[in-house]
Fold PQQ-dependent sugar dehydrogenase.
Amino acid sequence: MNKKLLIIPLIIIFAVLIILILPKPVTQTGFQSEVVADNLDIPWAMDFLPNNTMIFTQRGGNVSLLMDNGVENIGNINVTANGESGLLGIAVDPQFSQNRYVYLFYTSNNGNRVSRFVLNDQLQNETVLIDRIPSGSIHNGGRIKFGPDGKLYITTGDANNRTSAQDLNSLSGKILRINKDGTVPSDNPFNNFVYTYGNRDPQGLAWNPSNGILYESEHGDIQNDEINILISGGNYGWPNYQGNETAQGIQTPLYVYTDMTLAPSGIAFYNNKLYVAGLRGSQLREISLSNNGTSIIGQNALFTQLGRIRDAVVHDGYIYICTSNRDGRGIPQIGDDKIIRIKVN
């Protein structure tokens, strides 16, 4: 057989293989999107500096900046990375231009911790604000965000100790609220760090800027993932009640996923919609809200081709999401993990 004739099918086969292994384009009808960082090691949380530079964590301990020419590492935190633990949440101080403070939630050998750092060329001068938050290989919570009141809000999981979520003397299974210096705000409901309790594994916080409503995402037990509206002193039921179960004194979720496991993580509020990062659900969940933000009028599953999505944040007219396919529970794709920028048309 003519060798030239053999080359042609080999070229075709090679071309097909290249197409199959190349990263699939990030597409979604009605949205424009692009990958802005790839080959990351489990990015967990994102925030922005006043100069519009993204700062983000990777669960193994790296804190990085997303620059025009790539990713720049600005610190490596000594973390205990066991299962779901490690370096998790990040929050930039609202007065960063004056104090250059950045806050991190991470797992040390004594439990979960929230610390404040000073960012110059590198993170330095750690000040521990809360220490010995119960940690475990699962249910660490880990999201930290500044509210419109200037307080730092912290989500903590039950660390696989179910009953701790109802114990007001425990820091686990809660939403905590602290002053920037680590003290207890005078208007906290129980005269300690606890803002809400009965939370199983909350991983997302977002505020409605028009009315101050605080939304939270929370992992349920065997489905029953919840989207909640948080109120000061509220009891969200776990482990005695979850999902659509009701009881006197227990806050009712805004929505419960009973027919699927979304495993919701970070959430963002944009144009009267919530955008919820779904881990096991492998999607960015778009939730349309009523005008007053207290009920849901529609939902869509977006970007379902990316695998596990860990966080969603809004900045300067864009939604940013990060994948979590290298966290031991996903199937990594070419270039994982990624940060993706989305423009809503």
Q: What stands out?
A: Residues 10-23 have pLDDT under 50 and may be disordered. Residues 181 and 342 are 35 Å apart (CA to CA). The two ends are 55 Å apart (CA to CA).
